[in-house]
Each structure stands twice: as structure tokens, then as C-alpha cells.
Amino acid sequence: MAASQAFDWRMPVALRFGSGCSGTLADELGQSRALVLAFEPAGPLGLRAAWTAGLGARLLDWVTVPEGLSTLALARQLSARTWPLLTAQPGAVLLALGGGSVLDLAKLLRSVPAEGGFEAVAAALRGTAPWPPLHHAPLWLVPTTAGTGSEVTRWATLWDTDGPVAVKRSFDEPWGFAERAFVDPVLTLSAPAALTRDTALDSFAHALEALWNRHANPVSDALAVQAARRVRAHLAGVLEAPSQLPGREQLALAALEAGLAFAQTRTALAHALSYALTLEQGVPHGLAVAAWLPTACRLAAGRDARVDAALEAVFGVKALAAPAALQQWLQGLGVPCDPADHGVSDAEARVHAALASARGRNFIGAPA
Ligand SMILES: [Fe+2]
User: Fold this and answer.
1) Residue closest to 208 by CA, chosen among 185, 190, 188, 231
2) Ligand 1 centroid to 101 CA: how many Å?
3) H/E stretch holding 95
4) Cα 114 to ligand 1 centroid, rounded to whole Å
């Protein structure tokens, strides 16, 4: 299947990219007030002090998000503090600073229900009720990792840990898009090695999943190939010299390119397969997706001339040799790249089931 030459492209997020660009935020706000939702390290890193000084009287509140997964329980707890403020200050910007979990939480918290409180929102997330009428506060996102692409997508994941078994809940709505995003590679300098590697693998996976995707188009292909090549070229160097800004800039750019591509195509087979590893074994998202990438690559290669050309451009070998090249690269980074490495003994059955899922059906190798 060739990528369609006729396609839609929707990207309403106004982007600013560049080292130091988050420093322009306070000016950009003008007279608007801001409620900051920030990752925990913002305090020790000095970001809280700098932003608090920059925002001055415009800062409504500084809400710290504890490290860990974005859960419904956490959103419920934070909403008790953020929603009254956003309701009392119409027009105030919800400004989120952090990794994908913080940005995803912010996408939900910017939406204040007119009635029913948090439980009405929770019911909609669980799919048991339609969304209540929502008021959406302006949302500005400032990622501190080079990975999720959350700053340019309209979806978010929240883990529902209220019941005896944790369940992944996602929403994918037009109001999930932020108004603005500031991608500042300087903010990624503080990311520890494992986080740097795992988030880079996530953006690499977003690029590949955008390529072997039924919704690909020539523009998403160009961005995805570029993103994947960039991660391959620069990740090892950044892990060796994490304080060097040029490499960090390349990974941040790659994450943004991959984000822009998969914001249009969405994810595919490797993501569909990854969630069980995260849910059942706590494997970080980037590692969980990476474990399934060679499997998906083997199923994708040799099937479609467009995808084969893209794989050749990414890996510099013939498409049928791409899965081995991918595996070799992951092994060189010390990344387990076989589901069996995580104790999975029923990979084939899992692939079969995943191909029938919503994400799996995006995969070019899924049955039509
Ligand atoms: Fe991902």
C-alpha cells in the first residue's frame, strides 16, 4: 500500500523550538496569569525559583506532580487544587513543565467539568459515560524529556489504579492539543542516563510506528525517517556525554519530528504490545516498546515498497536486513530487544491479539 498522496494534516499547536526558548515564556504570557503544574525536580534544579521570579504576581499557584505514573487517582487529587483556581481565574494558562506523565495529566486537568466533578470525567475516561460539558483552560506545554511527543499530540494516557487490577485509560480528543509548546533542549540536560535512553527509544519507536502505519503520508514519512535517523546517529553520543548540549538538541529535535509524524498516524503494533509489559511488570514505556520493535520490523519488512524504502533510509541496509540492524543497535545500547528477555513466552499469541486491536490495525502488516 503506497502512502496516500491525498491527506489531511492537523497541527494546531504553536511551537517554539530552541535552546533557552523556555526563557521567553514569561514575556509571551503578557498580562495573563498562569497556574504551573511541574515535575518534582523543578525545585532542586532551580527552575521553580527562576520561573517564580519571572512570573511574579501572575503566578497563581505552583503545583508539584510527584514522580511516577500519571494515574487517575493523582489527577483526582490534583484537580481539587487546580480546578477551583482555573474556575476563579478565567483565561489563566495552565502551564505544564515535565515529562510525558506531567504533560498528560495537564491535558486532563485543563478541562474543567461544568457539572459532576471529577467522577464525571473519570466515567468518561472509563468509557461508561459521555464527556460532561467541559471548560478548557489555555494549555502551554514545556517538555523536560526528549521522548513522548505529548506536546504535539491530542491524546493522553492515565493509569486507572482505583480497582484491583490497573487498567490503561486513554483519551484522544481535539481538546487534547495544547495551544502552545516550548521545546527547550536545555531542559533535557538534567535527565538521568536511563531516562534519556528510554525516552529516546520511545521517540524512535514513534518514528518507526509512523512509518509502518496505514495512515502514513509523504510528510509524516519524511519527518519519521529524519527522526529515526537522528536518534540512531546521536543517542549513543549523548549517553557518553550527557552534558553536551548539541547532542541533546538533536534528540529533542528527533522527538519533536517523531511527535509531529505520529500525531497524524498514531501508533501501531509495537505500542499495542508494549502496554502489558508496563502494566504487568512495570517495564518503562520506552523499553517496553523497544522490546517489540524487532518483532514489528520483521513483520513490516518486505511487504510494501514505501515502507521498505523508509527502512533502508533509516538503517542503511536492505529492508529485509533492517530487523537485524535494529536488533544490533538496541543490543549495543544494552536494551533487551526480545520479548523473551522480559519473560514473555507467548509472543506469537500476543502479536495475533494485538493485530486485532485499535493500534494494531494501524500496522501495515495487520489483516485488512
Ligand atoms: Fe510511546
Assistant:
1) 231
2) 11
3) strand 93-98
4) 32
Q: Which pTM does this prediction carry?
A: 0.96
Rounded to the nearest angstrom, the distance between the alpha carbon of 214 and the centre of ligand 1 is 17
Mean pLDDT of 259-272: 97
Is the distance from CB of 325 to CB of 294 less than 8 angstroms?
no
CA distance 39 to 190: 12
Higher-pLDDT residue of 64 and 281 is 64
Q: Which spans in 15-60 are helix H?
A: 25-29, 47-55
The residues, ordered by sequence, that sit 6+ positions from 71 with a Cβ below 8 Å of its Cβ are 158, 159, 160, 161
Q: What is the pLDDT of residues 130-162, one digit of tens each?
A: 999 999 999 999 999 999 999 999 999 999 988
Domains of the chain: 21-183 (3.40.50.1970), 191-362 (1.20.1090.10)
State the average pLDDT for the chain: 96
Grid cell at residue 367: 489483516
The amino acid at 131: W
- Each residue of 200-235: pLDDT tens digit? 999 999 999 999 999 999 999 999 999 999 999 999
- How far is the centre of ligand 1, averaged over its atoms, from the C-alpha of 206 (Å)? 6
